[in-house]
Design a protein that fits this description.
This protein is of the alpha+beta class and about 200 residues long. It contains 4 helices and 9 strands, in the order H-H-H-H-E-E-E-E-E-E-E-E-E. The structure holds zinc ion (ZN). The site of zinc ion has 8 residues, from loops.
């Protein structure tokens, strides 16, 4: 597994100012606060993300450490390393291109409305969506894995029936501004991305 990218973890550009990095870190710490998640697997994922953004801030928030990190980062990464994933903003629907995170969550800032949101990007679907019947209709439960094999489960109300999701498919989830509910699911096919609004 490749080393996590501190800029991607915070959803900031490599030339972001320290203030911008600090704002993004503060936002992400709140967005990924484990107390905000009731589902144990989402809580675990949030806990991992909180550790990741804190690690990023520890390096990027310190001028010397950041300069050192930038030097090694430039030598390590090429821009084409990770495929771009086009994801909609939960507030205004504007698409933005974000580097694939192999199933990790990232904090993204919408270029159009400046809303910050959380997205789980490039996760692998484990098995098929399971329909669970509830008192007032059903819900689909999706199990997703990231590059480390860590699993998380999400529930969505609707899945387009014509889209038969199969095991191993690559998906991204866009969470609403509250950081809890899935607003969009995007399936990354070999040639095209298919996205739909969940609620
Ligand atoms: Zn927006």
């Amino acid at each position: 597994m490749s080393e996590p990218d501190h800029y991607l973890a915070l959803g900031v550009a490599p030339d972001a100012t320290t203030d911008e990095v600090r704002d993004a870190w503060r936002f992400a710490v709140q967005a990924f606060h484990p107390d905000r998640f009731t589902d144990p697997s989402l809580r675990e994922q949030a806990d991992r993300m909180a550790r990741r953004v804190n690690a990023a801030w520890q390096v990027l928030g310190d001028a010397d450490q950041r300069a050192r990190y930038d030097r090694t980062r430039r030598g390590r990464r090429s821009p084409s390393e990770a495929p771009g994933r086009e994801l909609p903003c939960p507030a205004c629907g504007t698409l933005s291109m974000i580097a694939d995170q192999q199933g990790a969550a990232a904090s993204v800032r919408c270029p159009a409305c400046a809303q910050r949101f959380t997205a789980m990007i490039g996760a692998r679907l484990v098995g098929r969506p399971q329909l669970q019947m509830r008192f007032l209709g059903g819900r689909y439960r999706l199990e997703l894995a990231d590059a480390t094999g860590a699993r998380s489960r999400v529930q969505v109300r609707r899945l387009p029936p014509e889209l038969a999701l199969a095991d191993g498919e690559t998906l991204s989830l866009v969470f609403g501004a509250d950081g809890r509910r899935v607003r969009y699911i995007v399936v990354h096919g070999a040639r095209t991305d298919i996205g739909w609004k969940v609620r």
